[in-house]
Each structure stands twice: as C-alpha cells, then as structure tokens.
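Q: What changes when inosinic acid is included in the input?
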Amino acid sequence: MRVYCATSNPGKLREFRLAGAAHGIEVEPVPGLADIPAPHETGNTFEENAVLKAEYYSRFVDGWVLADDSGLEVDALGGAPGVHSARFAALDTGAPGNSGDAENNAKLLALLADVPGPRRTARFRCVLALTEVTASGAGATKLFEGVCEGRLGLAPQGRAGFGYDPLFFPTGSERSFAQLGQAEKNEISHRARALAGLRHFLQVPPPPHRPPGRPGWPRRKGGVSRRTA
Ligand code: IMP
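A: The predicted holo structure follows.
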C-alpha cells in the first residue's frame, strides 16, 4: 500500500522509505510538496504538531497521508530541545527557519559541557499522525508513537544519518546513530518503532522471505481496513 508522507526533511524521508519498505509500505512524498507552503508548527507537543501537519496536508492528498513530528529530549535540559529540535540554535538568534545540524549539535554540546556521562541521558521521540482521505473527506487522525532511549556523547561521532545522530548513543550501543548506519538505525529508531505501530494498524504483513533474483513484493490481498480512531 502507499502512504503519502508530509516531510521535506530528506533524512527523515529516506528513513521512512526504508523502514516502510521493510514493512511492505510504499512511502512517497505528498505530491507537489515543494510548492505547498509549510504550515506553522505551533503545537506545544509532538502530538499536536503531527496532527496539525497531517490535517493540513490532507487537503492535498487522495489516500493516506502521514505526518510526523519528532525530536530529542535531554533529561539534563528538562526535556529540551523537544519540539524545538529542528531550530534549537535559532531560538537564541531569532533566525527564521530551521538551524543547521552542526549549529544545533554545537549548542547542545555547549549546554551539556558540565554534565557528566551518567547524567547525559536522552531519548528520541517520534509521533506519526495518519489520516485517510476518501471521496467523503478526511477521516479521523490516528497517532502512533516510537521512542528510542540513549545518552549523548562528548563529541560528534560518525558521518551517517542527520540531525543529532552523531551525538546520540542508543542504550546498549557503543556506536552513535551516525556510526550505526541506516539499516541498523532502522531496527531500533524512534521512527521505525512508530512505523511498526502504524503497520500493525494498517494490517500490513511483514514482507515474506524473498528468494534472490525475484525483485518486487507480492501485493497484499484485500483492501486496507477502514478503521478510524
Ligand atoms: P521536525 O520533526 O521536522 O520538526 O524536526 C525534528 C528535528 O529533530 C530534526 O530536524 C532533527 O534535528 C531532530 N531529529 C528527529 N529525528 C532525528 C533522528 O532520527 N536523528 C537525528 N535527529 C533527529
């Protein structure tokens, strides 16, 4: 099945596509996304922002629309940057738009300069909002959450991924998200965990074992269940 994703963040879209493919879900960007003015993310929580985006973009989609809001919560900073993760550095300067990953990471490291290893606990949180648009309009929006616990390093490590990946060490790993690489990150990430809930809701079975040399997934039989939350 196909889900239209409302994100212009290439790192997130890449992860959604890979994680979706592992669950038999084809993730495509909302058609014409680049030409649609982005909504203001005025919510105080990931849930509010995810719903706001899904309902906004549902005006431009026929079928399933998926929006997400995600970010990093650092315990020593009282849960910051949280919903401000994308423009954490810009909160100080008032610069418009999102901040660069390097600026955000530098600010985080500076704020945590005196925080010792055991207290550098943090988590990534992702909330997905899914809305189905049919001829009779948009249905109720359903939410799915995924969390990945970890701790923050003393310096960036690794070059893969995006955002705070070089600073984030998932619990039990000596490698940062940026050192793990996409496939390993997708097994444990907040986004992949939220997508697993979505897959369960849509009743999309995991892909069957595919013998080498036979590309393409078999299509699932029957329609998607039309449940709403
Ligand atoms: P938004 O959900 O687009 O508002 O922004 C989320 C921000 O959180 C991103 O721009 C990143 O800075 C950060 N973030 C979310 N997920 C990840 C991740 O998987 N790795 C690194 N940073 C992330």
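Observations recorded in class: The longest strand covers residues 121-134.
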